[in-house]
Amino acid sequence: MPSKSEILSFAELAVKNALQSGADQAEAYGEISRRITISISGRKIQSVQVIHDSGVGVRTYINGGLGYAYTMRLDKQTIKETAVKAAKLAKVSEKDPYFKSIPEAEKPKSVEGIYDQELASLQVAGLAKIAEDMIKTAQERSRKIILTGTLYTITRSYAIANSLGVEFEESGTNIFTYMKGIIRESASNVGSGTEFDCARNLKDFNAKWVAYEVATKALRALGAKVSKTRTCTILLSPNATYRFSQTLSSGLDGLNVALDRSYLSGMIGKKIASEKLTLTDDGLVEKGFLSSSVDSEGVPKRRFNVIENGVLKTYLHNSYTANRLNMENNACAARDSYKSAPIFTTLSNVQIKPGDQELDEITSEIKDGVYLDSFPMFSDPVTGNISSMIDFGIDIRNGELAEPIKGTMIGFNMLELLKNINAISKEARRTAGMIMPYIRIKDIQITGK
Length: 449
What we know:
The protein is an alpha+beta fold. The protein has ten helices and 21 strands. The protein has helices spanning 4-20, 76-92, 117-120, 124-141, 207-220, 238-252, 254-258, 319-325, 359-364, 414-419, and strands at 25-42, 44-62, 65-71, 146-162, 167-186, 189-199, 225-226, 230-236, 279-282, 303-308, 311-312, 333-334, 344-345, 350-352, 368-372, 385-389, 393-397, 400-406, 409-413, 421-431, 434-447.
C-alpha cells in the first residue's frame, strides 16, 4: 500500500493530467485507510471485518460541466487514465450555470490530537478485547441484558490537490461505538437503552462506561407504559441534544437552501430560536472527533457560530453552495470517500453553549413533561415537520422523573421547537470536541392514550 507522500504525489499527477486533457479546473483526492469493525449481537461478538482501502478520485470541470472518476489501482498509468476519463466526462456533461470555481489555496491551521499511534497500532485482538469487556460489563450490571451494536476504529491518511494551488495531506485516527441494550422480563415488559462514545485516541475512549450506561438505561425502562396525549414540556438529555443538532443540519445544508427546499431558506440574520441557544461548529478543536485542518475540498476548517443567541448566522457551505449563494465558504464540504465528489455538507464538532441554570433546577420547574434520551434523526427539510415514536423517554411529574414510557409519539415543527427552548443546563457532556447540555423545550405535542 502506498505511503502518505505517495498519495499526494498521485493526487498532483492526476490534476496535471486532467488539465492536459482539457479540464478548465481539476481536483484530486487520495486516501489510504484501515477500518476494523466488530459487531456485537446477543452476548457475543457476531462478526469482525477488516477493510484496507486506498484510491484516488478526480473531479474536473469543463465549461461548467462536471466529470468525476476514481480508481483503486494506484500506479502512474492508471492515475493518468482516470484523470483523462474524468475530463472526458466533463466535456459531455451538462453545464451547471451556478458553478463558478473550485476553492483557491489558503494556508490551514494544524490541529492537535487527531492522530494516536496507539490507536493506529491496535489490531483485531485488541479491539476484540474491548468488545468482550463491554459485554462483560453489561452482563455484570444485568445478566438479562442483550447487546447489539458496533465498535470500530479507522486509521486514515488523505491528500488533496487542485489546479488552484491546494496541496495538503494529513492523517487521523478514530474509535467509535454505538450500543443498544435490551432486557426482556416478559413479552409486555421490555426495557431498552442506547449509548455511544467516540474519541481520536485510545486513552480517551471509555467502552466500559458505554456498556454500563446501556444496561442502566434498559433497567430504568422496564415497566414502561403508554403516556397520555397532551401538549407538555420536554427535556433533552445530552444524547438527544446531539441528535437534535444532527437533525437540524439538513435544514442548514447550503444546497437545500439554494434549491429552496429548506425551512431555513432566507432566514440569515433572523431570530429563528430562543436567545438562549448558541450553536457553534468547531472543526479545529483539539481531539475533536471530526476535527481536521481542512475540509474535503482543502478549505481550512474554522470555528464559527451557526446560531448565535437565537439568530441564524450562516448555513453549512462547500465551495459550490457558497459561490451560488454569494456567502463565505465555512469549510463544511464532506464526501463519503475518494469514490465520490464532495457534494454534501456536514457539521464538524457541535458545541451548544451551556446555560446558567443547574439541571436540578431546570427539572424541578417541569410540572408535566417528558425526559427524552433520543431525538428523531430526520425531518422534512422543506417544512421542518417531524413525527416519530419516542425510543426512550420518561414522564416527568411535579419536577421529578416518574415512569418510563412506550408506544408514544412526539410531533413538532423544528422552527417552533427552536423558539420554544426555555432553558439550557450548566451541565454538559463533553465528548471528543462536542459540547451537549440538557435542553428544556415547552409546548411539544405528545401522542399516547
